[in-house]
Design brief:
The protein is of the alpha+beta class. About 30% of the residues lie in helices and about 20% in strands. The strands form two sheets. It has a four-stranded antiparallel β-sheet, with helices on both faces. Strand 3 and strand 4 (about 105-110) form a beta hairpin.
């Protein structure tokens, strides 16, 4: 039995930061413009994530909905399912991570480049929530197409695509998605944590 099982109850939920509890991943967005200052704040927050050796391996590519040609390029690599709703995002963004970091004698492999980019994504999502936006991360992406279309150089991994925007009513979604426009359940903490070795 997990040693913390007895304390995983409503009292722990009440101690979590409100912005963490408020964050979730809707699919219905209203395509409204995100002011440059708001997007800059969201990206700035992402860069404050921790990273191994302070290598900061993340890089963000983004396009605004209002830029029709640029936005279409960012939408194209998404699988059809994600295209069906992400076309109403205010911004589409791809998170990249640099696979190597600078060492004393040149670039060396960075074991945690994806892990660190994930930390940046979490910071981004929380800051967006704090400003009244929502985010939805996607790996339903043709990554080979994305690399070509977005001209991603060798040495960078495309981690995920992110839709950012203000939430719209579920009725704005294709009919088959409307009933799914709700927060996802989470596994109990005791189920995903173990004191001591895994076995």
């Amino acid at each position: 039995m997990n040693a913390l099982s007895s304390v995983f109850h409503a009292d722990t939920a009440s101690r979590i930061l409100p912005v963490i509890k408020e964050r979730w991943s809707p699919r219905s967005f209203d395509a409204s413009a995100i002011p440059a200052e708001d997007l800059a704040t969201i990206l700035h927050a992402a860069t404050l994530a921790p990273s191994a050796y302070n290598a900061q391996p993340w890089h963000f590519l983004y396009a605004h909905h209002a830029d029709e040609a640029g936005f279409a390029k960012f939408l194209e690599p998404l699988v059809a399912f994600n295209q069906s709703w992400a076309h109403n995002a205010s911004v589409l963004l791809y998170i990249l991570s640099r696979e190597k970091m600078d060492g004393p004698d040149g670039p060396v492999p960075n074991h945690s480049h994806s892990f660190d980019a994930g930390a940046a994504w979490a910071m981004m999502a929380l800051q967006a929530t704090e400003l009244g936006y929502h985010t939805h991360g996607m790996t339903g992406v043709d990554f080979d197409a994305a690399r070509k279309i977005l001209q991603v150089p060798e040495g960078y991994r495309i981690e995920a695509a992110i839709a950012i925007g203000r939430q719209a009513p579920a009725e704005h979604l294709p009919e088959g998605l409307r009933a799914r426009e709700a927060r996802s359940d989470r596994k109990p903490v005791a189920e995903v944590s173990t004191e001591g070795p895994f076995a």
